[in-house]
Amino acid sequence: MKYNFKMIEPKWQAKWEESKIFEAKDNSDKPKFYGLVEFPYPSGAGMHVGHIKAYSSLEVISRKRRMEGYNVLFPIGFDAFGLPTENYAVKTGTHPRLITDENIKRFSNQLKRVGFSFDWSRVIDTTDEDYYKWTQWIFLKMFEKGLVFRDRTLVNYCPHCKVVLSNEDSQGGKCDICHSDVVQKSKDVWYLRITEYADKLLEGLEEVDYPENVKQQQVNWIGKSKGAFVKFSLDGIDEKLKIYTTRPDTLFGVTFMVIAPEHPIIDKYADRISNMDAIQAYRSECAKKTEFERTQLVKDKTGVCIQGLEAVNPVNGKKIPVYIADYVMMGYGTGAIMAVPAHDQRDYDFAKKFGIAIIEVIKGGDIEKEAYTGDGEMVNSDFLNGYTNKKDSIERMLEELEKTGIGEAGVQYKMKDWAFNRQRYWGEPIPLIHCPNCGVVAVPYEELPLRLPDVKDFEPGEDGQSPLAKIDSFVHCTCPKCGAKAKRETDTMPQWAGSSWYFLRYIDPHNEQTLADPEKMKYWMPVDWYNGGMEHVTRHMIYSRFWHHFLYDLGVVNTPEPYAKRSIQGLILGPDGDKMSKSKGNVVDPLDIVDLYGADTLRTYVLFMGDYGAATPWNDSSVKGCKKFLDRVAALTDLVSEEPVSSELEMKLHRTIKKVTSDIENLKFNTAIASLMTLINDISAEGHMGKEELVIFIKLLSPFAPHLCEEIWETLGGEGFLAVASWPEYDETKTIAKTIEIGVQVNGKVRGTVVIPTDCQKEEAFAVAKADAKIAALLEGKNLVKEIYVPNKIINFVAK
């Protein structure tokens, strides 16, 4: 037959949809498999081939699992709140709801045309009121448990998007959405206490099957460190500066302190400070810098010594200067640090610039040249002198700190609490009310969802307020506790809110009484396999794990961890080797490939193009190569005969079953497809194959190229759908070749090869070798001294 993809693909897509064969059955007797992909943000640009690669791994795994007899949940949905849609809405004057609905329609059409086996009966959209009702419900449960709090702080603010961003959304000092420079702004911010779950998030990594680099990124992001909190007195004032250090053993080497320019102690004692003008000028300069700029390690050290405040080193009583410097932030730790210039390069550079004393307390380096950061013997450290073990010296110092009451052992985390509000329209309304009598009050659960009002003016406010603040009918309300006039919170949730629990809603997407039925969650959870990109490892994944741990503590979900296994796909680069982007004009539209070569070609190519976890450039000629391969597959129907295949081909077929089965599980899709390409060459060389062999071939190929394989299955008279036919099994005994070609040596030099039965006896092997004309000629007239046979490897004749 011919591979007429323009006819075959719509035909089978319609049949699959009509028969609902990809719909998961709740509480089935079959073993379950829950495969999850990161649901897309439905942008106006539509999907690109990177989306296809991202979803293809679990698509192939899910199709294989169905053939292995599993009840498979493989859902799809849309993460549709957020700034990109709102920015586009503002630009075009179109309501975000209309844009979102149109984009979802476009994405759904693309996914269906590629033939993904998603369960379309469970589609979710985070902007649906029936969905975000439960996002708000989870938020209120966190509010009840004290995990929601408000604080005034310096925040990352994008002047272009007019929105507060978390650290995660402004890495490198740039807005994730528009890439503008982020500035620091003082603002009241809602936070979620994710730090309360830091230890559980770390401990949970021991229970899951994640790649080591994914685990390490999360460990580093959480950044747990053990150390000590130490109190430094201020000379002549009844006030102490508290610092945190991971190296309390170096306290005798502290020669100055640094505090954040925003530290409140400066204003509290301004009348004692003689150089407030210089300090205020420096503060103004710092306010113009982003957090990223302030915390960079490699930069010129700037600061101002506070004239009028001196600290006292608590372990030796020496007075030390106190500086303000931009690299210390109020949001990190205590807003104050101790400086040990002899053993920290940043402190060393600062001390050299400002002429501050440098005292060696660990032997081993040359502090005239640079800071020594290695281990060694403690010196100039009183009761620590002579210690050579860092662990022991830290323990001894902790003992002293606690005995004298100047410090204590402590733990700190690099991860900060999650800034959880945005000053924009297109997001979940935060269900809180500000009452003049009762303070902050929760919207009653029975009033959820708190709906996003339908407005025409969704332009962001110039004053850092949400557009909702302009809508009197939304803002003004009564307090549910005391009945007084009150005002609603007008900030909305960040886009990450809806994606923090979406995998639970897929289990029971139409439930109006709860976020998901507990019995259904017991059946489906945890997610068996989750695939996504590295860019979401330290944001979405940590956030969603946090929410899930919280719901587990509430007794709402049945597993502490949401995802049992995680895998990562590499990027598809443009044909030019650069990352795909519209501005570079190197984006490949998947439907262009579907129109030209067919969906099966696209599906096969994105998994054949290279290692699944690696970044690989798009190559049009390789796409054509995959199309030619599928043309050859279609033509296999012409080779079907009743003549039995050779034992050699049977062996290669069983080896291929074994390899493809294993390679799919290990995400080695490119080598699985390559082995099928090799097998088709072997079949062509044989010249014929049986119907049974062709069925095995199309079953192995069907997760990659399902439309063509269904068509061949139908042509061969197969019953039902190939998509749910049984996965082929290999016979280990048939993967072993019946004959083997081995080298024959004469006096240690290879002189020829012979074909012998696998594992044949040495007498037979010698006989076959001696019967070979070339070997016989070399042995003729000589005395055979020794005959050596290494089974299945080599024959060696020693002759004189």
Give the gist of this structure.
The protein is about 35% helix and about 20% strand. With about 800 residues, the protein is α/β, with parallel strands linked by helices.
Descriptive report:
By secondary structure, the chain is an alpha/beta fold. It is 35% helix and 18% strand. It has 25 helices and 27 strands. Strands 8, 9, 10, 11, 12, 13 and 14 form a seven-stranded mixed sheet that branches. Strands 2-1-20-21 form a four-stranded parallel sheet, with helices on one face. Strands 6-5-7-15 form a four-stranded antiparallel sheet. A hairpin with a 3-residue loop joins strand 16 (432-435) and strand 17 (439-442). It is globular and about 110 Å long. The chain starts with a helix and ends with a strand.
List the helices and strands and how they pair.
Elements: H1 5-19, E1 32-37, H2 49-67, E2 71-73, E3 77-78, H3 83-92, H4 96-114, E4 124-125, H5 129-144, E5 148-158, E6 163-165, E7 183-192, H6 198-204, H7 212-222, E8 224-234, E9 240-245, E10 256-259, H8 264-268, H9 276-287, H10 291-295, E11 304-312, E12 319-324, E13 336-339, H11 345-354, H12 390-404, E14 407-413, E15 418-419, E16 432-435, E17 439-442, H13 472-475, E18 476-478, E19 485-488, H14 502-505, H15 518-524, E20 529-532, H16 540-554, E21 566-568, E22 572-573, H17 590-597, H18 599-608, E23 616-617, H19 620-635, H20 647-665, H21 669-686, H22 691-701, H23 706-715, E24 739-746, E25 749-757, H24 762-771, H25 773-779, E26 784-790, E27 794-799
Helix pairs in contact: 1-23, 17-18, 18-19, 20-21, 20-22, 22-23
N-C termini distance: 62 Å
Oligomer: single chain
Report the C-alpha radius of gyration, rounded. Answer: 34 Å
Mean pLDDT over the residues = 93
What class, by secondary structure content? alpha/beta
Low-confidence stretches: none
Number of E-type strands = 27
Helical percent range? Answer: 25-40%
How many helices in DSSP terms?
Answer: 25
For the report, how would you describe the main beta sheet? 7 strands, mixed
Question: Globular, elongated, flat, extended or rod-shaped: what is the shape?
Answer: globular
Percentage of residues in strands: 15-25%
